[in-house]
Protein backbone atom coordinates (compact mmCIF):
# COMPACT_ATOMS: atom_id res chain seq x y z
CA UNK A 1 0.00 0.00 0.00
CA UNK A 2 1.28 3.44 -0.78
CA UNK A 3 2.74 5.64 1.95
CA UNK A 4 0.00 8.15 1.15
CA UNK A 5 -2.70 5.74 2.29
CA UNK A 6 -0.69 3.69 4.83
CA UNK A 7 -2.57 5.27 7.73
CA UNK A 8 -5.99 4.96 6.08
CA UNK A 9 -6.62 1.70 4.17
CA UNK A 10 -10.30 2.64 3.76
CA UNK A 11 -9.33 5.81 1.85
CA UNK A 12 -7.08 3.75 -0.43
CA UNK A 13 -9.87 1.25 -1.10
CA UNK A 14 -12.25 4.11 -1.88
CA UNK A 15 -9.75 5.66 -4.28
CA UNK A 16 -9.39 2.34 -6.10
CA UNK A 17 -13.17 1.93 -6.38
CA UNK A 18 -13.57 5.53 -7.58
CA UNK A 19 -11.38 4.72 -10.60
CA UNK A 20 -14.16 2.45 -11.87
CA UNK A 21 -13.82 -0.96 -13.46
CA UNK A 22 -10.44 -2.14 -14.62
CA UNK A 23 -9.62 -0.92 -18.11
CA UNK A 24 -10.09 -3.56 -20.78
CA UNK A 25 -7.80 -4.04 -23.74
CA UNK A 26 -9.39 -3.03 -27.03
CA UNK A 27 -6.51 -4.68 -28.85
CA UNK A 28 -5.81 -8.03 -27.14
CA UNK A 29 -2.22 -8.44 -26.00
CA UNK A 30 -1.24 -4.76 -26.32
CA UNK A 31 -0.53 -4.39 -22.61
CA UNK A 32 1.80 -7.40 -22.54
CA UNK A 33 3.79 -5.95 -25.44
CA UNK A 34 4.53 -2.69 -23.61
CA UNK A 35 8.03 -2.23 -22.17
CA UNK A 36 8.46 -2.92 -18.49
CA UNK A 37 10.26 -0.16 -16.62
CA UNK A 38 11.63 -0.56 -13.16
CA UNK A 39 11.31 2.00 -10.42
CA UNK A 40 13.33 2.76 -7.30
CA UNK A 41 12.85 4.91 -4.22
CA UNK A 42 15.68 6.19 -2.05
CA UNK A 43 16.44 8.82 0.54
CA UNK A 44 19.04 11.52 0.92
CA UNK A 45 19.86 11.26 4.63
CA UNK A 46 22.47 13.53 6.15
CA UNK A 47 24.14 13.78 9.54
CA UNK A 48 24.40 16.97 11.61
CA UNK A 49 27.66 17.81 9.84
CA UNK A 50 25.93 17.70 6.44
CA UNK A 51 27.57 14.49 5.25
CA UNK A 52 25.48 12.03 3.22
CA UNK A 53 24.60 8.59 4.57
CA UNK A 54 25.68 5.78 2.24
CA UNK A 55 25.04 2.07 2.63
CA UNK A 56 27.81 -0.44 1.89
CA UNK A 57 26.04 -3.34 0.09
CA UNK A 58 27.40 -6.88 0.14
CA UNK A 59 26.02 -7.54 -3.37
CA UNK A 60 27.75 -4.82 -5.41
CA UNK A 61 31.12 -3.05 -5.42
CA UNK A 62 29.83 0.52 -4.96
CA UNK A 63 28.14 2.53 -2.24
CA UNK A 64 24.49 3.51 -2.53
CA UNK A 65 21.89 5.55 -0.65
CA UNK A 66 19.26 3.83 1.50
CA UNK A 67 16.41 2.60 -0.67
CA UNK A 68 15.76 0.05 -3.35
CA UNK A 69 13.60 -1.26 -6.15
CA UNK A 70 9.84 -1.04 -5.80
CA UNK A 71 7.80 -4.18 -5.33
CA UNK A 72 4.71 -4.75 -7.46
CA UNK A 73 2.05 -2.16 -6.70
CA UNK A 74 4.33 -0.24 -4.30
CA UNK A 75 5.03 3.48 -4.62
CA UNK A 76 8.60 4.82 -4.70
CA UNK A 77 8.04 6.66 -1.41
CA UNK A 78 6.66 3.54 0.30
CA UNK A 79 9.69 1.65 -1.05
CA UNK A 80 12.12 4.13 0.47
CA UNK A 81 10.35 3.98 3.86
CA UNK A 82 10.33 0.14 3.77
CA UNK A 83 13.97 -0.12 2.73
CA UNK A 84 15.13 2.34 5.39
CA UNK A 85 13.30 0.28 8.00
CA UNK A 86 14.85 -2.96 6.67
CA UNK A 87 18.37 -1.63 6.05
CA UNK A 88 18.82 0.75 8.97
CA UNK A 89 16.16 -0.31 11.47
CA UNK A 90 14.70 3.22 11.36
CA UNK A 91 11.15 4.38 10.92
CA UNK A 92 11.31 7.74 9.17
CA UNK A 93 8.80 10.18 7.80
CA UNK A 94 10.28 11.20 4.49
CA UNK A 95 10.19 14.79 3.38
CA UNK A 96 9.53 16.09 -0.09
CA UNK A 97 10.63 14.66 -3.40
CA UNK A 98 14.02 16.06 -4.39
CA UNK A 99 14.88 14.34 -7.68
CA UNK A 100 13.27 12.17 -10.32
CA UNK A 101 15.98 10.61 -12.48
CA UNK A 102 15.65 8.28 -15.45
CA UNK A 103 18.53 5.85 -15.91
CA UNK A 104 19.04 3.84 -19.12
CA UNK A 105 19.31 0.09 -19.42
CA UNK A 106 22.61 -1.19 -18.05
CA UNK A 107 23.53 -4.83 -18.61
CA UNK A 108 20.83 -7.02 -17.06
CA UNK A 109 19.04 -4.02 -15.51
CA UNK A 110 16.15 -2.37 -17.34
CA UNK A 111 15.83 1.37 -17.61
CA UNK A 112 14.53 2.85 -14.37
CA UNK A 113 12.82 5.85 -12.82
CA UNK A 114 14.65 6.73 -9.61
CA UNK A 115 13.02 8.91 -6.96
CA UNK A 116 15.10 10.57 -4.22
CA UNK A 117 13.27 11.92 -1.17
CA UNK A 118 14.51 14.09 1.68
CA UNK A 119 15.37 11.68 4.49
CA UNK A 120 16.29 14.42 6.94
CA UNK A 121 19.03 14.38 9.54
CA UNK A 122 19.99 11.09 11.19
CA UNK A 123 23.17 10.81 13.25
CA UNK A 124 24.78 7.47 14.10
CA UNK A 125 22.75 5.21 11.79
CA UNK A 126 23.88 1.58 11.66
CA UNK A 127 23.34 -1.34 9.29
CA UNK A 128 20.53 -3.71 10.29
CA UNK A 129 20.39 -5.93 7.23
CA UNK A 130 22.47 -8.91 6.03
CA UNK A 131 22.65 -7.22 2.60
CA UNK A 132 24.81 -4.46 4.12
CA UNK A 133 28.36 -4.55 5.40
CA UNK A 134 28.07 -1.12 7.02
CA UNK A 135 26.96 2.46 6.59
CA UNK A 136 29.23 5.46 6.16
CA UNK A 137 28.76 9.22 6.25
CA UNK A 138 30.74 10.99 3.52
CA UNK A 139 30.73 14.26 1.64
CA UNK A 140 29.89 13.87 -2.03
CA UNK A 141 33.51 14.50 -2.93
CA UNK A 142 34.70 11.81 -0.49
CA UNK A 143 32.13 9.40 -1.94
CA UNK A 144 32.85 10.20 -5.59
CA UNK A 145 35.42 7.41 -6.20
CA UNK A 146 33.14 4.87 -4.44
CA UNK A 147 29.80 5.57 -6.22
CA UNK A 148 28.58 5.50 -9.79
CA UNK A 149 29.06 8.84 -11.59
CA UNK A 150 25.30 9.01 -12.26
CA UNK A 151 24.57 8.69 -8.52
CA UNK A 152 27.06 11.47 -7.80
CA UNK A 153 25.26 13.71 -10.31
CA UNK A 154 21.84 12.71 -8.90
CA UNK A 155 22.88 13.46 -5.32
CA UNK A 156 24.41 16.78 -6.36
CA UNK A 157 21.00 17.68 -7.79
CA UNK A 158 19.30 16.43 -4.62
CA UNK A 159 21.44 18.71 -2.45
CA UNK A 160 20.72 21.62 -4.80
CA UNK A 161 16.98 20.81 -4.56
CA UNK A 162 17.20 20.90 -0.77
CA UNK A 163 18.65 24.41 -0.90
CA UNK A 164 16.37 25.78 -3.63
CA UNK A 165 13.13 24.11 -2.56
CA UNK A 166 12.59 23.01 -6.17
CA UNK A 167 12.35 19.36 -7.28
CA UNK A 168 14.72 18.41 -10.12
CA UNK A 169 14.14 16.15 -13.12
CA UNK A 170 17.18 14.42 -14.57
CA UNK A 171 18.17 11.84 -17.14
CA UNK A 172 21.14 9.72 -16.07
CA UNK A 173 21.88 12.26 -13.38
CA UNK A 174 21.91 15.28 -15.68
CA UNK A 175 19.18 17.87 -15.20
CA UNK A 176 17.09 18.40 -18.33
Automatic annotation (TrEMBL):
Pfam families per the UniProt record, alphabetical: NUDIX
* Top-level taxon of the source organism: Bacteria
InterPro entries with a match to the protein in the record? NUDIX_hydrolase-like_dom_sf, NUDIX_hydrolase_CS, NUDIX_hydrolase_dom
Tell whether Magnesium is among the UniProt keywords: yes
Keyword Magnesium attached: yes
Coiled-coil region(s): none
| Domain Nudix hydrolase stretches | 35-161
| PANTHER family according to UniProt | GDP-MANNOSE MANNOSYL HYDROLASE
The name this protein goes by in its record: NUDIX domain-containing protein
Lineage of the source organism?
A: Bacteria, Bacillati, Actinomycetota, Actinomycetes, Pseudonocardiales
Amino acid sequence: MSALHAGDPAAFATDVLDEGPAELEYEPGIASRRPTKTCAGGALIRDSAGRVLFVVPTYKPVLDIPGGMTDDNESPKATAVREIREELGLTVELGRLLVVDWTPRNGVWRDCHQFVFDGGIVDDATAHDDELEAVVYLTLEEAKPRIYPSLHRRLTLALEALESGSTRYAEFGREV
